[in-house]
Amino acid sequence: METKNIKSALAGAAGTARRLLFGEACCVACGADVFSQEYFCGHCLQTLPFNAGFVCGKCGRAIGEDYLVCLECKADMPLFDAARSVFRYEGEVVRLVKKFKTGGKYLADAFAQSMLQYLLSDFAGADILAYVPMTERAERGRGYNQSRLLAERLSALSGIPLAENALEKTRETSAQKQLSRRERAENLRGSFHLSSRKIWKGKAAVLVDDVLTTGATANELARLLFGAGAKKVFVLTAASVPQRGEKPFPHKN
Predict the structure, then answer these.
(1) pTM as predicted
(2) 72: nearest Cα among 213, 207, 191
(3) Assigned CATH class of 49-240
(4) What digits encode the pLDDT tens for the residues 61-92?
(5) Where exactly are the structural domains of the chain?
(6) Torsion angle, CA of 137/139/143/149, rounded to 10 degrees?
């Protein structure tokens, strides 16, 4: 890991401790002092790739023009009602998400706080939160499920109940990067299980995850939840991969 990244990671962890003990903190991205309750400093709030431009009304990923839905969703409409994300998965956000997955659990608070606005506005009226599960083996290897951490924080911040252990991943799935949409769906089919069905009936559910890549996982889980009687299924992530061919986020100086 580069020295700059090491310093930023250490500063982020130290910043969380300072926030809890002394009411002061460092920016979780760059390590600069933050003299407020924000998790990001003013500079990072200006330069991080927020997903604030044109987005697809369905999958929520960045698109280049103001269309109702993107071409990919138009060709193969996802089952979930809508997805939203705070950041575009590029630049500094890629490093932060990778850190979150490899020991940087302190980032759950920063991501969840940023995601809260979408939960309370775009998904107002949500009845229940859920998170994308991992297999027991994968979770033991990592030590935690980062999606669960986000859902727990969001539940605490919003008061919306969390369906703990209601979704299970029963088997590992092969990498999906080189697969077509249909192949991704087939790859995931049968890999998830509902440990409880009755809790979803008539509910508006929000699936929480760290990154929306193709949407295949969210789509498969939505299929299960609708099958159990869910009224609505939304997807909320910290970041999403922009549609193919989209230009990089125009960082400010």
Answers:
(1) 0.85
(2) 213
(3) alpha beta
(4) 999 888 899 999 999 999 999 999 999 999 99
(5) 1-47, 49-240
(6) -170
